[in-house]
Amino acid sequence: MERAVEAVEQAVKIAKKRGASAAECAISHARGLSVSTRLAEVETVEFNQDGSLGITVYRGQRKGSASTSDLSPEAVKVAVEKADAIARYTSEDPHAGLADADLMAVGYPDPNLFFAASQDPEYAMEQAIRCEQAALSADPRIMNSDGAHYSSHCGFRVYGNSHGFTGHYLSSRQSLSCMPIAKEGDRMERDYAYTLARDPQLLASPESVGAEAASNTVARLGARSIETCSVPVIFHRDLAHGLFGSLATAISGGSLYRKNSFLLDHLGKQVLPAWLSIYEDPLIPGGLASSPFDHEGVRTEARNIVTGGVLDTYLLTSYAARKMNMQTTGHAGGIHNWFVRPDAAHQVASLEALCRQMGRGLLVTELMGQGVNMVTGDYSRGAAGFWVENGEIQFPVTEVTIAGNLKTMLLGIEAIAQDTDPRHGILTGSVLLPTMKVAGS
C-alpha cells in the first residue's frame, strides 16, 4: 500500500504543478482467491489481483479524468497529463469540484475492516467440498448440485486530493455458499445458503451452510402457484434489506436532482411508520458497510436517517449537494451500516411469530426481475416463497408476481422480526406488509 499512497500523492502534486486549480486521486486494490466445486469435485480455482489509479483534474469548473493500472511514476505522470488535457476542453460545470476542505476526514479512526485469512487453495477447496458434501448427504432427495463457492479477498483504498488530505484503509471479506438441487417426482427445485463476513472467524461452518442449503431446497419441493389475490406479505430477512435499499436510492442526491425519485421533496416528511427509525453508523468495527471517509475524503459520521418515520436527511455527494444548495452528507460511494429500528410494540421475536401475526398470506423468500420504477414507486416482481394459513406455513409457492407501490409499502410496514440478517450493510429482520397484489394462476 505504501507505493499506492506515493502514487496518489505524486499524481496530485503533478496536477498542481501543471496549473490545475484542484485534483483528486484514488486507488482501490483487491487480491483474492475463489474456488468453485460441483458434486464435491473442484471445478475452478481463480486468483485475482485488480487495481487501478483514477485521477481527476479540475481547471476551474472544467473537469478531466484518466486512469491507469500501472503505478510506475512514468505511467502516473502520463495519466495526469491525459486528465489535464481533457479538462482543458470539457464544458464548464458550475457544480464540479472537490468537497470542501473543512469536511475532510483529518485524523480519522482505524475502521478495523481487515482480518487476516488463509488464501491457501487447499484450504479453500476443503471449505467448499465440506460444504457441498454436507448438502448432498443431508437428504436423499438432494440429487444434484449447482456447486459450492468459497472466496477470500483483501484489499485497500487510498484517496488523496489537493486540499492536502490523503487517507487509506485495509479491508477483507470472506464468503461461502452452496446451491443444491432436489428432485421429487418430475419436479426439481434449487435453493441456496451462504455465509459472509470480514472476519473469517465469524463465518458459519461449511457443514451448517450445506445443511441450511439442503433444508431450503427440500422445503421448495411441491411448489405450486396460487390464485390471484390481495393478501399480507412478509419479505424474508434475506430480501427485506432490498425494501430499505430502495428507500436509500430514492433519497440519494443523484435520484433527487434528476427528479428520478418517488420521494421528491420529502425531507422532514413521513416516509416510514411513526414507530420505525433508521440509524447509520459508519464506524462499526468490521462492519460490512463501514468506512472512515467517503469516496471524496469527507469524514463519515453517525446520523439519524429516519426518526419516528420522518426523513431526517438526504444522502448527498458534494456534486449533488451543490446542485441542491445543500451540504454533502459523506455518502459518495454509498451508505454506511444502516440499523432499522422498530419500537418494542412492533418488533416480534422471530419469523415464526411474524407468520402467526400475519395469519394468512405469502412469505416471500425469492424475488426475480427488476420491476421497480423509482420515479413513481411502482413495484412489480416475480416471486417465490411459502403460503401461510392460520399462522403456519402450508406449502411452497412459485410462479407468482407481487405488486404494489414502494411509497405505500414503506409507510404501511406493520411489524419487523428480530431475525436481523448480519450479511448486509442494511441490518433488518423480516418485514410484514399489510397487503400486496399477488398474481398467480
UniProtKB/TrEMBL annotation:
Tell me a Gene Ontology molecular-function term this record carries. Answer: metallopeptidase activity
Coiled-coil region(s) at which residues? none
Q: Which InterPro entries match?
A: Metalloprtase-TldD/E_C, Metalloprtase-TldD/E_cen_dom, Metalloprtase-TldD/E_N, PmbA, TldD/PmbA_N, TldD/PmbA_sf
Pfam families in the record? PmbA_TldD_1st, PmbA_TldD_2nd, PmbA_TldD_3rd
* The Metalloprotease TldD/E central domain, residue ranges: 118-221
One cellular component term (GO) for this entry is: cytosol
Q: What range(s) does the Metalloprotease TldD/E C-terminal domain occupy?
A: 229-440
Which keywords does the record carry? Hydrolase, Metalloprotease, Protease
Q: Which GO terms describe its biological process?
A: proteolysis
Q: Which PANTHER family match?
A: METALLOPROTEASE PMBA
Protein family membership: Belongs to the peptidase U62 family.
The protein, known as: Metalloprotease PmbA
Q: Name its species.
A: Aliidiomarina sanyensis
Taxonomic placement: Bacteria, Pseudomonadati, Pseudomonadota, Gammaproteobacteria, Alteromonadales
